[in-house]
Write a structure and sequence with these properties.
With 175 residues, the protein is an all-alpha fold. It is built from 6 helices and 2 strands. The protein has helices at residues 31-38, 42-51, 69-83, 88-100, 105-144, 162-168; strands spanning 58-59, 65-66. The protein has a two-stranded antiparallel ribbon with strand order 1-2. The longest helix has 40 residues, at 105-144.
């Protein structure tokens, strides 16, 4: 006779309040704690709640906001989207799709893929800008020599090449 054990329920995650748990209970965070953990200001958290980026935030028996670990996880997603330049309107659209349920996976994927293309373009732009910075670093290192710049005599020197003098004052050059 073969004995099969009944499937065990998944262990409850200690950081997630049980369904229906009261916001005064364990696992819920005060606004100050949510600010600290999310990196958003309190004003931003209130704004995100007001415009619908955050779902309904729980309230304690005294009416104070209490954030669940799920809220913090979602704030992490919002932080990523915001830090990578997604406009608020697009973040709101994404949040609405998430709230609409699993039937919106394809639309969510399209939003994230389009945003990823924009992030790649930003990275490429920053790399091009960094190349200019590297060229300038190389130029200034070669101009100062291995031991650093020698003190310049007071006033302009006729012996000083015009190219070096021009590079140290005025608008940047495309060296």
């Amino acid at each position: 006779m073969t004995h099969t054990a009944a499937p065990r329920p998944a262990p409850a995650r200690a950081t997630v309040p049980a369904p229906g748990a009261h916001p005064d209970g364990e696992g819920w965070l005060t606004p100050a704690q949510a600010v600290e953990r999310s990196g958003f200001s309190l004003d931003t958290l209130r704004y995100y709640e007001r415009i619908g980026l955050l779902g309904t935030v729980g309230r304690s028996h005294t009416g104070h906001r209490r954030f669940s670990p799920h809220d913090l996880e979602w704030l992490g997603v919002l932080r990523c989207l915001r830090d990578t330049g997604m406009p608020i309107a697009e973040m709101r659209r994404f949040a609405e799709l998430v709230r609409a349920g699993e039937g919106t996976f394809a639309e969510r994927l399209a939003v994230l893929e389009a945003h990823d293309v924009q992030v790649e373009e930003q990275i490429a732009h920053l790399r091009r800008q960094q190349e200019l910075i590297h060229r300038k670093i190389t130029f200034y290192r070669s101009a100062t020599g291995p031991s650093g710049p020698e003190p310049a005599p007071p006033g302009p020197s006729a012996a000083e090449p015009a190219r070096v003098a021009a590079s140290s004052v005025g608008p940047p050059r495309a060296d």
